[in-house]
Amino acid sequence: MFTSTFLGIFSTGFWFFLVEFVLRLGMILFLLLQKKKRPSVLLAWILLILAFPIIGLLAYPMFGGTRLGRRRMNRHRMILDQIDKPEFHLWNDPRPHQIELNESEQQLSRLAETVSRSPASSGNRLKLFGCTDEVIKQLVMDIDVATDHVHMCFYIYLDDMAGTRVGQALERAVQRGVDCRLLVDGAGSKAFLRSRLRRRLVDSGIQGIAAMPVNWLRLLFSRIDLRNHRKIVVIDGKLGWTGSQNIAEASFAPKKKYAPWVDCMVRADGPVVRELQLIFTEDWYLDSTDDLDEQIKIAPTWHEDGIPAQVMATGPNFYNEATTQIIQASIQLARHEVFLTTPYFVPDEGTFMSIIVAARRGVDVQIVMPSRNDSKLVGAASRSFYQPMLKAGVRIHEYTKGLLHAKTITIDKDLAVVTSANLDRRSFSLNFEAGLLVYDTDFASQLRFLQGSYVEDSIPVNKDEWMKRSWARRLGENTAGILSPLL
């Protein structure tokens, strides 16, 4: 009897391990056949499957690909074909296309247009905002003078004082006959989508929908953590906003212990507004059948005293990792200084090496990140990159007055980038992001001044002290670094 019981247990265990081995081997072979995966990402998934096979086998279908779903991809292609029709390009004013850029800027502009489909244009008036309250105040004022439409797309919309103030402005606009459309991410704004404020806004006539809704049915056909991380406002086709700030108070109630959130936004008046309009339209059409043809045709204003700028919109629908290409090219153009701010620093190999090489060739490279990150895992992974950067001469500052959420770059005080994209793989490959490239010395100097104010509230990371940290910290940070391709 003992023998038969033992044989039964052995037989059950044998078949269990055989099935697990076959599944593990099959998943690894499947990963190796993925042409669009970076080697480091493949290796990280393989290590996870080997070390924790059950977790790896369950996690990859949910978080391992960049599947938007066949219906969504087909609809996106249809939208692009529709927008590219001649009738949507009635604005034939040649002035926005007459741009004076140096050779390096021309190369960067061509790259950005190739990978994100938005051309550079002249005649833009841009205003930089570095204070959350000032952004909300000005945005409410802009909505209050809207006469035709207000289009808003945000990753997070909170039911707090800022959300209420903006919501009330939208309600007033609807009462004036203005068409108001509010697109919020299905995961980032999950609480808002269930809130009384959202129901009140919809009941008042505001069209509010979730971008890429989260539900278990979507898991069968697409990856559920591909998110719309953009922050875009378009008012009457004439005014636009983009940057890093969500519709939320700086105190950010969901994670108040890390507050205040410190952000950066740009208010635009000029040809780039039309590009923001097109991006919003693409996003809106993915989850709505509403007709925005007339809004697309509205010509923005060209200003003789305006400056050259370019919208960069990226996302997993193009599979080209446009954000990282633009950032790497920008860093490679630097001759004197590269200054970056980001809340989450988990770069891919190319971006990381661009930073290292720039520092080694004598460029003053500075990075500002929060001293306390709202994600401990991401914070640890970020610090795993410190040692090689410090050795190369990169100056690292850790911001202490809250969570620095501004995503900015200045190059030689000539080129400025303000974006929703973090310096991490999620923004590079998985999220829908938007931002502005600005080819103007005065604007870049303003942004560089704002970046300098972050340094004043930061603690510099000392190379010698960093090398002395405990083995336990090194182990934790380097382990998180190994997982960085999956973050």
Describe the structure.
Helix 7 links the parallel strand 2 and strand 3. The chain has 3 domains: 2-63, no CATH class; 70-308, 2-Layer Sandwich (Endonuclease, Chain A); 322-486, Endonuclease, Chain A (2-Layer Sandwich). It is built from 20 helices and 19 strands. Strands 4-3-2-5-6-8-1-9-18-16-15-10-12-13-19 form a 15-stranded mixed beta sheet, sandwiched between helices. The mean pLDDT is 86. It has 487 residues and is an alpha/beta fold. It starts with a helix and ends in a 5-residue tail after the last helix. The chain has helices spanning 2-32, 39-51, 53-63, 70-83, 103-116, 132-144, 161-175, 190-193, 196-203, 216-219, 272-287, 293-296, 322-333, 349-360, 376-383, 386-392, 425-430, 441-456, 463-467, 471-482, and strands at residues 121-129, 149-154, 179-185, 207-211, 231-235, 239-243, 261-262, 265-269, 307-314, 337-341, 345-346, 364-370, 395-399, 403-404, 407-411, 415-419, 423-424, 433-439, 458-460. Helix 4 (70-83) packs antiparallel against helix 11 (272-287). It is 46% helix and 20% strand.
